[in-house]
Amino acid sequence: MRKFLLPLIVMLLALVPVWMARATVVDVEVPVPAGLTEEEVRGKVYQAALEKLIKTDMQRMNLDVAAYDKAFETKFARWFEVIEARRREELTAAGTVGEAQTPVIDAEKEKSRSVFANRTVLVKKYTIKKFAAHPEKLETWQMSLDGEVDERLLSVHVQRMLQEGEKAFRRLWILTTVRPTNFGWEDMKLTRQEDFTAPIEAEWLKWFQENIPDDVEDVALCDESCKKLLEKWNAQDEKSMQSFLAPEFLGGLLLNVNITLDREVLSGTVNETRMNYGGGVVLQDLNTKRVLHWADLPRETQTLRQAEPKLFNSAVASHCYRYTLGKFLEVKNQVGKSVSLTNSISIRLVNASHMGQALRLIDWIREKGAPMQAQGKLDSFNRKETRVLIFFRGEGNKFKSLVSGVKELESEWGPLTVDDSGADLVITLTPKS
Fold first, then answer.
1. Which of 49, 169, 181, 252 could join 286 via S-S bond, C-beta 3.0 to 4.6 A?
2. Mode of pairing for the β-strands spanning 23-31 and 140-149
3. Which residues have CB under 8 Å from 170's CB, separation 6+?
4. How big is the CA angle at 164 (ends 162 and 166), to the nearest 5 degrees?
5. CA distance between the termini of the chain
6. What is the rounded distance in angstroms from the CA atom of residue 90 to the CA atom of residue 337?
7. pLDDT category of residue 20 using cuts at 50, 70 and 90
């Protein structure tokens, strides 16, 4: 017996330093301006502690922190340009101009920095061991954070940040809705949808992390804070998206996964349940609301023996997980064919004599705006005023300058004027007598 006991003890002792190496404790002192709520203070200090925790583990893992910081700042600066431009437009419209905009932009930049870093997904678990005001320094708070990073995700995150160039899409959000059509969650001994979907979403997230589209930086589940942002996002129409500001969604994709469950209890000597599955998936660009891909899920039926609720629920959940994977592959392939368009503008075509002129305008803009990846769609048409919605990547004034070249279509349409002084771009044709 003793010859087996000694190797076992040695093996267990060998595991201890491995675990200890993964658990990291950091302490931070963060100056915090007066006037913030306790929740805001806690969030600010927590982000600082989280950054220190992750960089401490990067050093332990021999990852280049200096190179990472340089790449982060470069990519963040380019990403933040759109947010700053929209915020300044919003402030100017509200009467806040010049230096008065600076504190608002600075606050937006700090918030956006933590969103861009997305550090929370890199930590498996953590404990805040201490959070308190500094006993001697005014407006300074302390935190002691004990956390364990996901080394695999951290390595991938650093590698992606160090890669040259940028991915087309910042993040793919997964939003799941499972609807029982003729029974309730209580019939499955559950209280809410999340009790059923949480383990399925965790496996889907793992699948996408292992099969991440080449043009996507990372993947995340749409949690409660994401769902609150979606309420505001859903309230916008396509024409107002150019002024919508949500750093979490900028450059992002939304994958809606919808599954319906229809239950039939079968009569017979053996108690069985027939579960019918249906639904679909929809992939949208969060910048513009464009639908990039949609697909119906095939109707499937599963016959199950009535069993202990946990076993029954597990069988249904396992089927739901496998049910969507074929469509997820389609989504992955579609992302590679898509581009992220961060801006949009509405063009009013006045006095168009027929719809062909609007379609010609869309084709002309697609050709001339190719460097800005411009794409257009007809929003409404009548002879008095036609509206065209254009999505593009880049700065709005540069796009307006490009479209002013539409005068070259005078050879086809006759005299026209271009007014780019307002939010919409107005092209007025000379009505035919």
1. 252
2. antiparallel
3. 79, 216, 217, 218, 250, 251, 252, 340
4. 100
5. 107
6. 33
7. very low
